[in-house]
Amino acid sequence: MQRPDGATALRTACYHKQLDVSSALLLNGALINLANEDGITPLSLAAGQGSVEMVKVLVRRGAFVDLADTAGWTPLMKATEQGHLDRLDVLRILLDSRTDIALRGEFNCWPPLTVACFCGYTEFAQLIYERLPADYYVRIQQPILLASTFVDQKNRNGDTALQIACQQGDVNVVKALLISSNDINVSNSSGWTPLTSASWKGYHDIVIALVERGADIEKRGLDGATPLEMACHSGHLQIVRFLLSQGACVDTADNEGDTPLIEAVKNGHVAVVKLLVEKGVSAHPSNREGQCALSIASQKGLEEVVNLLSTMVAPALLP
User: Fold this and answer.
1) What is the fold, at CATH topology level, of the domain defined by 252-319?
2) What are the boundaries of each domain within the chain?
3) What is the pLDDT of residues 136-192, one digit of tens each?
4) Is-contact 38 10, C-beta < 8 A?
5) String of DSSP letters for 115-160
6) Are 1-138 and 151-249 equal in CATH topology?
7) Where are the ANK repeats (predicted)?
């Protein structure tokens, strides 16, 4: 029985990872390759979720391993796209089932190996690379170097391989990609550069590597935020200290009028506030809501911050 949207009992059981129910349905004749309206089969769904045991059952029962959905994604691509390490076992099962690693999906019409390399998923890339047939054409003989051939191309979110590696915190991939990148300041659809992402996430070693290669420490996103502001927002003290040592402007405001200090106060990062004060930050600027750092600290009940700003930064704001 199939609902109007293409859902079946088997697909629902796979979605909820109900292995016993799925096995019972298959024993009673459930159509294993029946897809929903988006062309997603039970196997593709299970592969995308990283459901190792479910994938084993479906493959053993004869699921077609190369059936693509309406966007051209096969189960192998679904297992590869997120890069989560718990998907590696799913990848091995599909590769052992002789899935076609040359099929190309919607992701820039690239095969899984290229997707894995582009996204910096080195473990996935290596696993697929090791299974390549002898006649498979690969221009460069190492997956991490293959990634560099796509280093400045963007995916649908405007992310480059370098941007994705910075978001995931893989410093080795970042350093490898930096060798080939022509523009390390390229922005994604949010206007964020790799440095902004690494600063926000707290990847200190990556921030250093990017700045050493010439990353623009003052480049703003579409929201007007700088890498320093995002580091202050997240409370990454080491990164804040490093960016300041490299000359980052301490008082730059974003589109809402929030400064690095205001972001640090909003999120209760006292150590960051202290560092900014040491560097001569001004607490006088107000954001679009008319709030300054001191008033925000007062509203949030941050006594230590209030005392600090009152005595060291903003005496002119006091009655």
Assistant:
1) 1.25.40
2) 1-138, 151-249, 252-319
3) 444 434 444 555 555 566 766 677 778 877 887 878 878 877 877 778 998 988 899
4) no
5) HHHHTT-HHHHHHHHHT--TT---SSSSHHHHHHTTTT---TTS--
6) yes
7) 5-37, 38-70, 71-106, 157-189, 190-222, 223-255, 256-288
- For the domain spanning 1-138, the CATH number is 1.25.40.20
User: pTM of the predicted model, to two decimals?
Assistant: 0.62
81, 132, 289, 302, 311 from 78: Cα distances, Å: 6, 19, 44, 46, 56
CA nearest 50: which of 74, 83, 23? 83
Torsion of CA 305, 241, 119, 139, to 10 degrees: 170
CA distance 222 to 235: 21
Q: How far is it, in rounded angstroms, from Cα 83 to Cα 13?
A: 24
Q: Which helix (H) or strand (E) holds 40?
A: none
Does residue 258 contact residue 221 with C-beta atoms inside 8 Å?
no
Which residues lie across from 8 on neighbouring strands?
A: 2
Please state, in angstroms and rounded to a whole number, the distance separating the CA atoms of residues 310 and 319.
11
Tell me which DSSP letter residue 191 carries.
Answer: S
